[in-house]
Amino acid sequence: MLPRFEIVRRLRPVSLIARGAEADVSVGTPVPLPQLAPSVAIVVEPDHRAAAAFHLGGMWLGMSVVVGRVVLTLTEGHDTRELRSRRHGTVRSDPTRVALTLTGTHLTALTEEAGRWVARARVDLSDRLEPRDPEALSRLLVEGHGARVQAGRFGQLGLRDLRLVTSRDGSPVEDEGRLLLSATSAGPGFFDTGHTSVWSLDPDSLDLEHHSDLFFRRPDKPGVYGDHATHIVRDGDSWLVATSTWGDFEQHDPKRSVRATIARTSADVLSGVHVLETQELALPTDGFTSVGVWDPHLVHTGEEWLVGFASASKFFKFHPALASGPTLDRLTLRGAATDRRATEGTTILRVGDGWRVLASDGRDGRRGQRARYPMFDLAMAEVGELQAAYPTNLPWPTLAHTRCGWLMISFNGAPATGPLVGYGTHGDLVVQREVSRD
Asked: To the nearest whole number, what is the mean pLDDT of the chain?
């Protein structure tokens, strides 16, 4: 029997450069800053000038603030193009810092005004450049003009898709008593600007600490991707990292799809930055239409693997499903709640002596299937409902039994950086504790 939960803390670790990855850069001089993935930022403290640029793949990708307007400049050979946002490009006050980020194929200029970052200009480089090319990233140069310049691996504007890092039996993996979590580090835009990160949370103080960032190579195409919606599992002496291929999702592509991949690695994924080689995690969708699958969650019961996931009949109409099998490459469908149309975050949890599947019914669901956490048996028949606060967006039901009792770790849809970049910059990490039954 699971308790009722209430919200006790919201956390929002916004950082354009990942903590610990900051490097001071000589002002006005291009310097090498090789990267493993297309996820990098330059932050400048202005003086009489405020500008930054990447040199990548034969192009000069720059930003500057000119008479209160933010300008992006793209130069290749003798061809130069300047881009300004008519609606969002005017700086409202003197910025305390300016920044240029490259996340996936997106170049974004931001200004820090009144203590918050605001996106002022953005361009998709996919028609001009392949930022995911490892060879080009190894020769990346950065430059900045101002009083002080720092650069490094991109951090995050928000966190979502939080999962416990677990052992194969589903129990949490801890680091000196701290819970380990995988998350999607939100970038300045839609899903293709995010990446996977690893964090730890103290169950007493609720202090949050960043540990690492993960990127992925695909089995069927070149490049390095910021895939996310990830579950990390300790399996013997190695790690299983199952993720969703959101890293190049194009919302308006009629052929768009998402699938699951998996990596097995002995690398220390709990620190630093890693690019992992993946293979397909084939999730069965027999008996219903599926244009994409995501949110893999893995548990071994001692007899078989269980894999929870979400499947979409179209974008965006989706429902939870469960597969099982003796190995992860021999899965068959166990059940699917195809009556849902806005339910994801499929999570397998041991409750008492048995297993339950939790999920999140979004606010676009049918009547009676909105803003709640349904609980299913292993045939995916609903058998109950988790009693907990339901923040905005589609918070996943991630639960851990700690020395302080049950803890629930989820997120909301609170955006960052203003309206220019649109959906995808969420959210706050939302912590709930069990309510005493007294």
From this structure: 96
| 281 vs 200: CA distance, rounded Å | 26
The structural domains of the chain, ordered by start, are 5-12+157-434 (2.115.10.20), 15-156 (2.60.120.560)
Q: What's the rounded Cα separation, in Å, for the pair 251 and 261?
A: 20
Point out which residues pair with 342 in neighbouring strands.
Answer: 318
Q: Which residues lie below 8 Å from residue 187, measured CB to CB, with a gap of 6+?
A: 39, 101, 103, 104, 106, 154, 156, 157, 193, 194, 195, 226, 424, 425
Residues in the chain: 438
Give the residue among 155, 145, 170, 61 at the shortest CA–CA distance from 108: 61
The token pair that represents 28 in the structure block? 């006005």
**Segment 269-306, tens digit of pLDDT:** 999 999 999 999 999 999 999 999 999 999 999 999 99
Burial pattern 107-146, b for ≥16 Cβ within 10 A else e, equals: bbbbbbbeeebbbbbbbebeebbbbbbbebbeebebbbbb
Contact 98, 50 (CB under 8 A): yes
Beta bridge partners of 116: 113
Instruction: Please spell the DSSP secondary structure of 112-151, one letter per residue.
Output: EETTEEEEEEEEE-TTT--TT-HHHHHT-EEEEESSEEEE
The residue among 26, 15, 16 whose CA lies nearest residue 146 is 26
The torsion angles phi and psi of 247, rounded to 5 degrees, stand at -65, -15
Q: What is the CA radius of gyration of the chain?
A: 22
d(CA 302, CA 325): 12
Dist. CA 199–CA 393, nearest whole Å: 21
How many CB atoms are located within 10 Å of the residue 393 CB?
18
Looking at the chain, the number of H-run helices and the number of E-run strands are: 1, 36
What pLDDT digit, counting tens, does each position of 210-256 carry?
Answer: 999 999 999 999 999 999 999 999 999 999 999 999 999 988 888 88
Beta bridge partners of 297: 308
